[in-house]
Amino acid sequence: MARSRINSILTLLLLASVVPVEAQNPPQPPAAKPALPALPAPLAVPQPGPATDGPYAATPILQGGVVIPLYPAGSPFLKNERVREPEKYSMSKSVPGRISSIVNIHNPSIEVHTVEGGINTGAAVILVAGGGHRTLNVGGEGADFVPFFANYGVNTVILRNRLRSDGYEPQVDGVNDALQAIRLVRAYAKEWRIDPNKIGMMGFSAGAELTAAAAVFYDDFDKKNSSPGDPLAGTSSRPDFVGIIYPGPSPFAKNRISPPIPRNVPPAFLATGGSGDRVHAIWAMEYFNAMLTLGVPNIEMHVYGYGRHPGDPLPDGSHMSGGLTDRNDTPYGTWQFRFIDWFRDLGFLQKPGVETRAAKDVATFASQPPLSNGPK
């Protein structure tokens, strides 16, 4: 009995002397994960040019752009008291370096982007952005189209025209800027490897309003600007084609002047939403009907059953985008490919120097007597 008790006591003492491994080596907290290095600031973010003693010199919004002013210093087209003011950029809040829009344009300009020589068709599209004449939405309705058209060998020119919000009259100053842009691109066509017979214009919303006017007022503009002192005198401002995309009111809209249509008026491609963008569809139809009534060749229009105007609110609270936006995989999001179909069909994607079918059709139409009794 005594021995048994002694053994029990010894066992207890032995157990008490054994320190658990966990107590000898307590678990260590995991090493802190090293922090990621801070992200660098975006590089090559476009900036407006500085204010100087001379006229404002615009800077390109895309890499490699060649920017030249539309008018020489001291031109009567310019407000000399404001021509030195720098432009103001509105940048995207989510995409570093992306310009959404520009305002305060007092020395209007063009920004030229040419394509590789091996694929160059010689065609050039002058892009005229919208923005309700309040802003110039050069992001979605300008810069985005540069790589798109480059895929087809088409050169692009981004126009920075003057705005109503900065004290200008779109139907005068904006239209003058559009027509001057065509003359300027044509004057430098050789230097930029552009075919002078394949220069046209594509406008969006308010920009389409200017484009539609440029398509019918070029003769008047050229006559008024033919003085020997004008370096562009004798260079035509007639566009060889126009794209009129979800347009503002054309010269043929209700309560506008409905001017005579030149016999060599350029072919036109129109695209817009339908009942979801009713007012712009009506404006597109007014231009289309004026041309169709006269029998102008190669006028094409697409009115999409489902589609809204850029900036319009959507049911989910977001806003409809414009330009090349896919538009939730709806047919309206493919209008740009319908333009390419039309453009190719008229011969603008052939090699430089090859006469387009559009030019042949215009010449044939211009040689015929006008319709005397309307459509038959």
The oligomeric state is single chain
What is the total domain count? 1
Low-confidence stretches: none
First-last Cα distance: 132 Å
Secondary-structure element pattern, one letter each? HHEEEEEHHEHEHEEHEHH
Based on DSSP secondary structure assignment, what is the total number of beta strands? 10
Derived structural class: alpha/beta
Strand content range: 5-15%
Whole-number mean pLDDT? 91
Helix content: 25-40%
Q: What is the number of helices?
A: 9
Q: Major β-sheet, in short?
A: 8 strands, mixed
In summary, what is this structure?
This protein has 376 residues and is α/β, with parallel strands linked by helices.
Give your account of this protein's structure.
An 8-stranded mixed sheet has the order 1-4-6-5-7-8-9-10, sandwiched between helices. It has a two-stranded antiparallel sheet with strand order 2-3. The longest helix is centred in the middle third of the chain and has 19 residues, at 206-224. The relative contact order is 0.10. With 376 residues, it is α/β, with parallel strands linked by helices. The protein has one domain (66-367): Rossmann fold. It is built from 9 helices and 10 strands.
